[in-house]
Design a protein that fits this description.
Elements: E1 2-11, E2 14-20, E3 25-29, H1 36-48, E4 67-75, E5 81-89, E6 93-98, E7 101-102, E8 115-118, H2 124-127, H3 130-144, H4 146-170, H5 180-216, E9 222-227, H6 238-252, H7 254-260, E10 271-276, E11 279-280, H8 281-284, H9 287-309, E12 314-318, H10 326-339, E13 343-347, H11 351-354, E14 361-367, E15 370-374
Parallel strand pairs: 3-13, 3-14, 8-12, 12-13
Antiparallel strand pairs: 1-2, 1-4, 4-5, 5-6, 6-7, 9-10, 10-11, 14-15
Length: about 375
């Protein structure tokens, strides 16, 4: 996948820009607050229909503007060209277009432009809450499996309804039998989600080990463990096994759930643990090791997406080189070249890249929301 042209109107501090891309590696550099991350944010929005920085579309409107309009022209690895456009205004809401035709469901766009993002916020993958790690794996699977995205949406709806019934039971306004249809739906979607998460995390684990050693220049072993609320051997009939085990678990925690008026066990509370040499990375890893792990994880994601979609994703790397020594920076740059994914990088300086003398590389300087292509 290649992004050949990006058009921005009233997005963050960027009033109007049209950026053409012809190289695989594109570096956006400049001081803080100049609009570097905004460019990456706009590309991410074209792929996933939402920002990775805020949940409110109004927050990305340029101050004083009534709407923003972003569009991208893309070319698949096999040559097919298409466009995606996202328009938002406070009065008309958000609309997404594929080849100039408005799509009925935003979710239908997910996976059309596969995106891998690494930003400062991703440090929460190791140091932060389980919710951040669940979100990471859910976004990854949703881009390669439309059925998973639908199952995730249905599960959230069922969970909301089940919690509502639990609250009514605790208030003596509903019967325990009212839980039965929701428990059936809960186990159905929860089993599918858990099964898919386990498979994808096993694939990532096998990919990231070699990648981390290459980027870190060490022989450290990396591990990934999915901590779910049920224990089942993941064989061919695992989903049916999972349904039965989840139903059993719901029976076991029913009194507790009623007491709290909330579902206390499920994929919405699962966690993912990352290890280095059998020790939790969030406890025993340095800042540099943590960032090297995250970069390796993103490249593992890229390889997984390429395998599943037969399409290389776009790589968005937002200010990833701080806290890395020169040898690790050099290893990361070599890995970027080896992956052959079109990559968009932000940095306060372009020095590390300019001295590399790479041919397939472009520089864009950001000043006050204005983009200048260096030739």
């Amino acid at each position: 996948m290649k992004l050949t042209k990006l058009s921005l109107l009233n997005f963050r501090n960027i009033q109007k820009e049209e950026i053409l891309f012809s190289k695989n590696i594109n570096v956006f550099y400049g001081g803080n607050g100049q609009g570097k991350t905004s460019v990456l944010e706009s590309i991410y929005l074209l792929g996933l229909t939402k920002s990775f920085r805020v949940n409110d579309d109004k927050a990305v409107l340029k101050q004083g503007s009534e709407y923003f309009d972003i569009s991208g022209n893309f070319k698949k690895d096999k040559g097919k060209e298409f466009s995606v456009r996202v328009f938002f205004s406070g009065t008309k809401g958000k609309h997404v277009f594929y080849n100039q035709k408005k799509v009925k469901s935003f979710s239908s766009i997910i996976g059309v432009v596969p995106i891998i993002l690494l930003s400062l916020e991703d440090l929460t993958l190791t140091y932060g809450s389980p919710a951040a790690r669940r979100k990471f794996v859910d976004i990854l699977i949703s881009q390669i499996d439309a059925q998973y995205l639908q199952a995730l949406k249905k599960f959230k709806e069922v969970l909301q309804q089940r919690n509502k019934i639990l609250s009514l039971i605790s208030e003596k306004e509903a019967q325990i039998s009212d839980l039965v249809p929701w428990d059936i739906q809960f186990s159905k979607f929860a089993a599918y989600i858990i099964f898919k998460r386990k498979i994808i995390l096993d694939h990532l684990k096998s990919l990231i080990s070699t990648l981390y050693k290459t980027m870190s220049g060490t022989n450290d072993e990396i591990g990934i463990k999915y901590n779910t609320f049920v224990q089942v051997d993941f064989k061919q009939d695992a989903i049916e096994q999972l349904k039965a085990r989840i139903n059993q678990k719901l029976d076991e925690t029913q009194r507790k759930d009623i007491y709290y008026g909330s579902t206390t066990s499920g994929p919405h509370r699962d966690d993912i643990i990352f290890f280095k040499n059998n020790q939790p990375l969030k406890t025993f890893g340095s800042q540099g090791e943590n960032k090297t792990f995250l970069i390796s994880l993103k490249f593992a994601e890229a390889r997984l997406i390429e395998k599943e979609l037969k399409e290389r994703p776009l790589l968005l790397l937002d200010d990833i080189f701080s806290e890395l020594d020169e040898s690790r920076i050099e290893n990361v740059i070599k890995s970027i070249i080896a992956e052959k994914c079109q990559t968009f990088i932000t940095s306060t300086t372009a020095e590390n890249f300019k001295k590399s003398n790479l041919a397939d590389l472009d520089f864009f300087k950001l000043t006050g929301g204005t983009v200048a292509h260096e030739t």
